[in-house]
Amino acid sequence: MKIGFYNIQGGTGKTTLAANMAYYISDVVKTVFVDCDIYGGNSALFFNLESVPETINAYLNGKYSPGEIIHEYENLSVIVSDPTPAAFDTDLNVEKLVELLNHLDKKYDVVILDLPPNITEGNILFSNEELSCKMIVVGEDSIPGVGGTLKTLELLDVLGTPVIGTVINKDRKIVEYEDVIENLIAILPYDEEVEEQWIIGEPIVKKKSHFGKELSFLTEDLLDVYIEKDLATQRAIEIAKEFKSHIIGEEEEEKKDESL
Ligand SMILES: Nc1ncnc2c1ncn2[C@@H]1O[C@H](COP(=O)(O)OP(=O)(O)OP(=O)(O)O)[C@@H](O)[C@H]1O
Ligand SMILES: [Mg+2]
């Protein structure tokens, strides 16, 4: 299953949530994190991969195969984008990007997509028919943040993209979100430690920090309520398919026997 983190507004915490939740989820099921912010991504910094040449940009430029751009960060597989200005030389072929994501979906239980803000010509949201990705909308606690989140939810509705729920990040008790946003699944605190982790060079959040604790609760909920159910359904579908092909195989064998 693919889960995207999105908001048309920048800087709300999409990458922070996507990278950390992917890391937590990878303790339980086979998970890959993919930085789809081709021109503006910074996930390489989260995983200490800022100087690797094997990026999603290099894949899109035809330099590497999907298998060659996967890096391992403990249990988590990671695909980063080029964090340097050389990223602007990337040929954003959306079909090739969707092909990569669908390839990963077959190999992993969960594919986490860190999406860019805004709506650009090449935004993969518009290819959702072939992509079949479900979204977590990450909004931030501010008045413009409410506007951005409501606009994002409206956009996803118009595009027919399923939404798992909205997370409000950087909560400083400015807005009572429960009264405004219907599909709220979590409110995560503004926590200076999140910013400080950049300075110490460990952007993956410790579960014991205020933000980390709340984020790990959200991840557990997501695993219990959503991911495990979805994986169980997928396994049931696979068993049903195998069962069906077994029966059809047996029927064909019987037909062959009868015709002899
Ligand atoms: N809960 C939080 N408390 C404090 N700072 C936070 C929190 N969440 C994220 N940040 C900080 O906010 C900044 C933006 O976060 P991040 O890069 O995850 O946002 P983004 O939505 O991915 O941005 P972009 O739209 O540019 O991709 C970072 O410096 C990050 O450390
Ligand atoms: Mg980001």
UniProtKB/TrEMBL annotation:
Residues 3-120 form the AAA domain. GO terms for biological process: negative regulation of cell division. GO terms for cellular component: cytoplasmic side of plasma membrane; cytosol. GO terms for molecular function: ATP binding; ATP hydrolysis activity. It comes from the Archaea. This is MinD/ParA family protein. It comes from Methanothermococcus okinawensis.
